[in-house]
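REQUEST ID: PR-0412
SUBMITTED BY: lab tech R.K.
PRIORITY: routine
TASK: structure prediction, single protein chain
INPUT:
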Amino acid sequence: MRVGLFIPCFVDQLFPNVGIAMLQVLRRLKIDVDYPAAQTCCGQPAFNTGYWGEARQLAQRHRQIFADYEAVVCPSGSCTAMVRNFYPELGVEPPATFEFAEFLVRKLGVTDVGAKFPAKVTYHDACHALRELRLKDEPRQLLRHVRGLELIEMNEAETCCGFGGTFSVKFPQISFAMDEVKCRAIQQTGAEYVVSTDSSCLMQIAAGLKPPVKTIHLAEVLAST
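STATUS: complete
OUTPUT:
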């Protein structure tokens, strides 16, 4: 299978280690991986703020860049949902795009990637991954097969962290209050790390967490050996 890496803007600009970790895991699994350097934003910010003409241009470009791949893998439920679920609303046929955990479990049938991460972790269900892509058990299956890892579920696992892209900019007070609820639930678990599929959520959560709890992307956990 020839796989194209779709690296979202957030990962590219702020959390490059997430993309590198995803690549390491895929190479460990002997997947033929390519990174099309011409890729840019998928168009989600423009789409969400009503600039559908601009979003359509980006979607068409994205489609052309990834057209020749059997599968496109992305370390973000948010951007994956944009391509798969909302490109059709722009009249653009999406390439076969998978969120990283979804690709491993549903497409490859892999739940054990040979990772080792001796720590107590809890998992945050990012809204797009959970509600748009229907991914809940897949990331947890992967975490349960990581050597030394103890998964502790929090009470507010499915509660939004308050980021929501432009939502956190337009409604900062509401966003902050939502983050407080999420962070309180995380710290009540006694976990050392909170794991998620989306770096944007983890950035929001990190702003409200108290030490020693840290944030880490699922790909980074799975890359650890």
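NOTES: The radius of gyration is 17 Å.
REVIEWED BY: pending
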